Every structure is written in structure tokens, then in C-alpha cells.
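FYI - complex with pyridoxal-5'-phosphate, inputs then prediction.
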Amino acid sequence: MSNILEQAFDPEIFRKNGHALVNQLADYLKACRIGSRLKVLPWRSPEQMLKKWEQDFHQSPSGSFEELISKFIDKSIHLHHPKNMGHQVVPPAPPAILMDFLSNFLNNSMAVYEVGPSSSAIEKIVIRWVSSIFSMGEKSDGILTSGGSIGNLTALLAARQTKAGFNVWEKGIQGNKFAVMMPDVSHYSLIRAVKIMGLGDDGIIRIPVNDRMEVIPNELEACFQQAVEEGKQVIAAVGNACSTSTGSYDPLEEMAHFCRDHGLWFHVDAAHGGAAGLTNKYRHLIKGIELADSFVIDFHKMFLCPSLTTAVIFRDGSNSYETFSQKASYLLKSQEKQNWYDSAQRTLECTKKMMGIKVYALLKFYGPELFSDYVSRTYDLAKDFAEMIEETQDFQLAMVPASNIVCFRFIPKGKSPLDLETITQQIRQLILEDGEFYIVKTIINGKTYLRTTLMNPFTSKKELAELLEKIRYTYFSHVKNVKEC
Ligand SMILES: Cc1ncc(COP(=O)(O)O)c(C=O)c1O
């Protein structure tokens, strides 16, 4: 055995480094929580960042383990900072992080039962828990996938296999013009899924949305009929709960009834907002999800888990076995037999991480109240923030938020709509480069808005008031006289 191999697997070196890592991260968490780390994002351009790390890579001597951790933390975006309010990425709860660490160490690969025995059982328990929370019925079943994008694809593949009228998996699409109805504001992974399925642009039927970016139920029939007239075979419709850009919830119940009446598969992308179902206050937002044929939920969004863990739930669990009915004799003994414990039968992934343990541990140690408290807190805070914005004279809300996503813009006096576009884009860029806050931008009805997603349970009205001040300051000190973006 070589000396380096001995060192890399030395239990005592591992113990020392492991303790050092946890110590550093605990201090980091403390600093983030009280906001004493000044910047959320230590902004550098991609080229500057690459150069920094290239220098580090070629540096000799190579430095200590602690030093590398420190440098890596310093140059990362700090999700646990209360002024982090950009994308839908959760600051994960430390117990879930530790479970991820454990699962990385054990590295059970999951494709078939014997390479993930406990993990396969735990995945089943998590799937059953989600199915029961969303009242999916006795026959429901599902699978965990590495993220919502794979989850959405998995569900739409099942939709196609079920609704095509023949075995697409074996015969290919045979020139059929299959199509999926979805609102234009759907996450791009859904559009990608349709394209991966070989259906092209024609395979996407865009359902009109109202000013709040919600599907207009009365438009469904016309969309469907037009597609039929164009010779398309509509196989499915997708509803969002909620949409990525504005956090809007589609009328799921009405969409489900429409799908039932037209023989379509109904899929709900609840990657972000499905968690509302765990709260009494916001459960109404996902009413109708229980009528869906499939839905996805991301645990790395509103369930406090580190990336990635998605549940894909099917009303009729047997559909999930037909999607990837491929033979791999060295791995899967008999594809005829539906083995819930051989996950490779039902997902495009072969090796996958032991994802369920994070969710299982949070449920076991804290119960579902952890999630409901988190969702209520962040959704309530978004409503507070919206009120704060409406009370000002110089900010404009895009819409009253349904979830924890709030879109708004600064409207200084006497500026034209064109100026406002430039101003909003510049404010966002300056705030990004400044690094004190992390916010993003989005386009709604052709206008640019600043966008915040309140993912951090330790963000409060104080930071939100400071954000509004920061935007004013940024405008008056850096943007006011600049004309072009
Ligand atoms: C509504 C929605 N669906 C799907 C996804 C894709 O999920 P993932 O990033 O886990 O692949 C996202 C990501 O933000 C999303 O917001």
C-alpha cells in the first residue's frame, strides 16, 4: 500500500480534519446568523475567480486542510446570511447537512437493493410520507431523483408512456405529434423535458396566464382544440405550484378536472411550493394536487435539505415502472417483476445518492412541524415585505405574493418606463457587485423587476427595511445620472 493511499484513508487524520471542519462550519453558521459576515456574496467576475483558484491550485506548499476550508468558505455565497434573498436555494438545516455527510461517507449507490439496503427502505418511507401528506391514495408510489429537473422529466416520460396508446419506450414516437400543455412561465426544465423527449417546439402548447401569472382555466379548452386541429396528440398538462419567477399557484383543481375530462395526464410541478401543503394557513394553495397523476417536490427548496433530493409521486405507482422498462441483466434480475427496492427500474439514474436519510432524519427528530413552521414563517414574511413596499411612495410591487417570492421595483419620480427598465437592471447589477445583499431580477409582463425569495428563516423585517434603503442609496449614489445600461 502506498503511503499516500494510507494517508488518504487514515482514520485519525480523518477524525482530526472532520472535527476541524465541523468547528469551522459552526463558527461560520454563528457569524452568518448574526450577520457579522458583512457580505453575502464576495463578488468577483468569473475570470477573476478562476484566476484566484488557479493560483491556489498551483501554490506550493499546498497549505493546510483548515486553510483550504477557510478560503473556500470566504469565496462562496453565504446562504445562511439573513441578507441572502436571491434564488430558491435553501440554507440547509445542519442536521440534514450531517446526514448528507454520513450518506457521502457510506456512499451506498442505491441502484439495486443490495447496494443501498437501509437507504432503499428509507426512501420508501419518505415516499409514503409525501404521498399520504398529499392524499394521493392507496395505489400511489414514487421515487427520489437528483433534482426537480430529472423529476419533471421522469413524470412526463411516464405520461407519454401511459397516454401514447402504444409502447413508446420500445417503438419510439413513430412520427406522432405528441404535445404537452403548460403555462409559459413554467420552469425551463419542463420545456427541456419535452425537447429531450424529441417533441420539439411543437410539442409545447403554451397556456395563457393572467396578470398574476396563473393559468386561466377558461383558456384550456381553446388551447387544446387548437392543438388537435393542428394534428397534435395532447398527452398531458402541467400546473405550477408555484411558478419559479413570481411564486404563483395555478388553479390545480380546475386543471385536474379539465385533464380528467380530456383524458390527459395531469402533472404538477410543486418543486418549490408543494410544501405549502404542510401548513394549515397555506394548504389551500395546492388544492387539487391530490387529483394529479404525478407531481414533484424538491426537498432542497422548502424542506431545508441540502441539494439535491426530489420526490416524484405517481397516483398510480405502477406507471412509474413502465417508464424505463429496459433490460440490464447484469443489474436488474427481472424487469417483469416490479421491485420497489431496486430504484434503477424507475429512474434514469443508475448510481444515486442516499437522499432519503436527510428528510427521514428531519422528520424523525423534529416532525413535520419543522417544515410547516419554516413555510409559514417565510410565506408570512413575504406578505409583510409586500406591505412594507406598498406603504412606500417610491417602490412598486409586481403582485401581492402568494408564496415567499416577492417581485418589486424602485420607481423614482419622473422616469419613463424605458428609464425604469435600465434603472432596475443597473440597481440589481450594482447590488450584486456590492455583495451586502443577494437579490435577483426577473421579467414579468415584459417589465424587469427585482426579485427576492425569502428562503432564510432568520431574515426579518429589519433586513428587508435595510434592503429598501440600500436600493434607494444605490440609485441616488450610483444610478441616477446614468442613462444607458
Ligand atoms: C418550479 C421549479 N421546478 C423545477 C425546478 C428544477 O429543480 P432542480 O433545480 O432541483 O433541478 C425549479 C428550480 O428552481 C423550480 O423552481
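The first helix runs from residue 3 to 8. The mean pLDDT is 93.
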